[in-house]
Specification:
The complex is a heterodimer of chains A (271) and B (268). Chain A has 2 domains: 46 residues, no CATH class; 207 residues, MetI-like fold, CATH 1.10.3720. Chain A is 80% helix and 0% strand. Chain A is mostly helical and 271 residues long. Chain A has 10 helices and no strands. In chain A, helix 3 packs parallel to helix 6, helix 8 packs parallel to helix 9 and helix 9 runs antiparallel to helix 10. Chain B has 268 residues and is α/β, with parallel strands linked by helices. Chain B folds into 2 domains: 179 residues, Rossmann fold, CATH 3.40.50.300; 65 residues, no CATH class. Chain B has a 6-stranded mixed beta sheet, with helices on both faces. In chain B, strands 2-1-4 form a 3-stranded antiparallel beta sheet, covered by helices on one side. Chain B is globular, with a radius of gyration of 19 Å. Classes of the chains: A mainly alpha (271), B alpha/beta (268).
Chain lengths: 271, 268
Amino acid sequence: MTTAHPSLSPEEIERLKAPARRENIYRILSFFSPLLLLLIWEVAAQAALIDRRFFPPPSAIAGTAWQMIVSLELFEHIGATLRRVAVGYAMGAIPGVLLGLILGLSTRIRRVLGPIFAALYPVPKIAILPLILLIFGVGDASKFVVIAIGVFFLMFYNTLGGVMQIPQIYLDVARNAGATKFQTFRRIALPSAMPSIFTGLKLAAGSSYIIIAAAEFLGARSGVGFFIWASWQTFAVSRMFVGIVVISVMGYLTILALEALERRFVPWAKH
Amino acid sequence: MNLPVSEIGRNSVPVDAAPAIEVQNLVKAFYDVAGDRITLATTDVNFTVRRGEFVCIVGPSGCGKTTVLRILAGLEQLLSGHVRIDSTTPPAMVFQEASVLPWLTVAQNVAFPLSLKGVPRQKQRERVSELLALTGLTDFADARPHQLSGGMKQRVSVARALVDDRDILLMDEPFGALDEQTRLTLQQELLRIWERTGKTVVFITHSVDEALTLADRVLVMSPRPGTIVADLAVPFGRPRDVVEMRRDKRFWDLTYEVWRLLATSPER
C-alpha cells in the first residue's frame, strides 16, 4: 500500500494520505449506521421496551419475509406492482418529455398551452384516484393511468425547466451551423435538457411508488400495496413491515438504476 | 505545427471584385417592454469588406460591435439600412464564450455542421481530422469539452467554423477570455490558418493590440450608439510574426492613433 516518491520522505507521504484514510473510515461507518438502528430496534423489542404488537423485532420480520420468499408469494406481489409502475411510468414519461421539449423551445406554444398544465398540476393525484377507478375500472388500466398522470407532470416540468435553461449560445451555434427546427430539437434541446430529465426521472420514480401503494390499497387483488393493506385488515403486523420494506427497497433500487443510466448517458454533467 | 510559408494562397481574387460584405446606413435598436424604453445600439454604420480581407472592428464594450456581427450572421434583424453579403455560403461564426457543446467530444463538435447536413461519415471523419490537425487538436479528438482549457475550447470553435468551408468567417472576440500568452499563440495560429485558406474575416475585439496584430484594416467604433469613426489601413505585410511586429515603430504609432480615436470619440 505504500507509495514511493523520489522527493518525499515516507513520513511526508503518510501525512499526505492521512485525510483520505480518515475519509474511508467514515464511508465504512456510514454503511453500518442503519444496521445499528436495526440492532437497537431488535434489542428494544426483545427486552419489551417497545410494544411488540406494533414493532415486531427485525428478526421476526425477516422470518416472515423468508417464508413469503420460499412460498413465492412475495414475488407475485412484487411482479404485479413492478409491471404497473413500469407501464404507467413509460406512459407518463414519454409524453412528458416530448411536451416539455416542445413548450420549452416554442414561446408561442408555451404561452397558449402553458396555463392548462399549470392549472392541472396542483390537483393531488391521489384525490382523482376514485374518479380514475370509476372511468377505468379496478383493473390494471386505472393503475397505469394514475401513475402516468403523476409521472407526466414531473417529467413535463423538469424537461421544460431544462430546455428553458439552455444557454442561448448553443441555440446560436445550431442556427449558424444551419440546423433545422427538428435538428435543434433533437441535437441541442434534448441533450441540454438531459440532466434535468434525469432529475425528473428520479423524482418520478419515487412518486410512482407512493402512488402505486395508495392505488393498490383501494382497488387491487395483488401488488405490494394490496398486500400491506390486506395485512392491516388481518392485523398481520410482521407482514405489513415486510411490505413496507419491500416497496422501499424497490424504490431505492429503481433510483440506483436510474443513476447508473445517468452516468452512462449524461457523462458530461456533474454527478 | 508551422507550415511552410510558400503554401499561402490568398489574394488570388482581384481587388476590384464585388465586396464580400457591404453594410450601408445600418441602424439597430432594442425596445425594452417593461421599462418602455428604446436603446439605440448602432446608428448609421457603413463599411465594406473585400473578398479575402481580414478586418477588425474595435470599440469600447457596449458599442454595438457584437450586434453588427450578429446581424451579419443572420442571428439578429436590423431595424433599417442594408446588409449585402456576396457569398454562396452563409457566414460561419466563432463565438465569444465557450460555445463548444458539452455533450459532444471535440471531434463531434468539429463535425457538428457536417453532421447536420448529412455528410457521409467517412467524409466527415476525413475533414474533421484535417481540421484537428490544422488547429493542433489531433490528440484531443476524443476529449470532452470540460477536460479542455479555455484556449483549447476556442480552437474547437475555430475548427468547427472552418469545417464546412464557408467563404466568410465572423469572429466575436474569440480570444477575449484567454490569458495573454495563449491569446498570442492563437492569434499567430489564426493568421497562419487564414493565410492558407484565404477566407474573408470580420473579427470583433475591444483590444487595440489584437486588432493591429491581425487585421488588414481596423474599423474603430464609437461608444453607443455605435458608428464607424475611422477606417485605418494596417501597413504590415504578410505573413506576420505577432511577436516581431511589436518591434516596429509603426505598430505603436497606430496603437496611439486608435487609442486617441477611442478616447476622443464623443459619448452620445
